[in-house]
Design goal:
It is built from 6 helices and 5 strands. With 179 residues, it is an alpha+beta fold. The longest helix is centred in the middle third of the chain and has 27 residues. It is elongated and about 60 Å long. 15% of the residues are buried.
Length: 179
């Protein structure tokens, strides 16, 4: 029988894995670059910045382990353009509904059954979804569902989210966990 310490270690996310070194280097570079922006690249702060970047990288790998992504650059460009178009159209629709008293708002919650499993890719999809006017992911629901707050529950929200999720999955190729 395993001790509770061994069980806790087994439940922790792996820090070492095939993509961990590359992920650690890119995260450390990002954190250090952010530090340089915050401090104005002052030479006196470089040592503290290196320590802060190393600590942030370690914490980042513990909280969000490295994942294998197969990002498709052309699909990413298409997705960004689609997202911008969708954001503008949805923003106009939300503004129209808010300013025209004849158009009723029917706010409420819908449950969307996501195809992406829980993890980083699904969280990225939720972050993208939260940027679209009129929808806001609020948390998990029964099964693989997500509770979504929307401005008009009579609209085909779940169908629209399915299209967005499919485009997101095509762009990132579905993230698979390393290790």
């Amino acid at each position: 029988m395993n001790s509770s310490a061994e069980q806790n270690r087994a439940a922790e996310p792996p820090v070492n894995g095939p993509g961990t070194l590359g992920s650690a280097i890119s995260r450390a570079a990002g954190f250090f670059g952010f530090w340089l922006v915050l401090t104005g690249a002052d030479a006196g702060d470089l040592a503290a910045g290196l320590v802060a970047a190393a600590a942030a990288t370690w914490a980042s790998l513990r909280l969000m382990p490295a994942q294998q992504w197969s990002l498709r650059p052309i699909k990413l460009a298409e997705f960004v353009l689609h997202f911008l178009r969708q954001s503008i159209a949805a923003g106009i629709d939300v503004a129209w509904r808010a300013l025209d008293p004849r158009l009723e708002l029917r706010p409420g919650f819908v449950v969307y059954q996501a195809q992406l499993p829980p993890g980083t890719a699904r969280e990225a999809f939720c972050a993208i979804m939260s940027l679209l006017p009129g929808t806001l992911p609020c948390g998990p629901a029964e099964g693989n569902g997500l509770t979504i707050h929307c401005l008009d529950v009579t609209q085909p929200v779940a169908e629209q989210l399915a299209v967005e999720e499919a485009l997101c999955m095509q762009t990132v190729g579905g993230a698979q966990r390393d290790g």
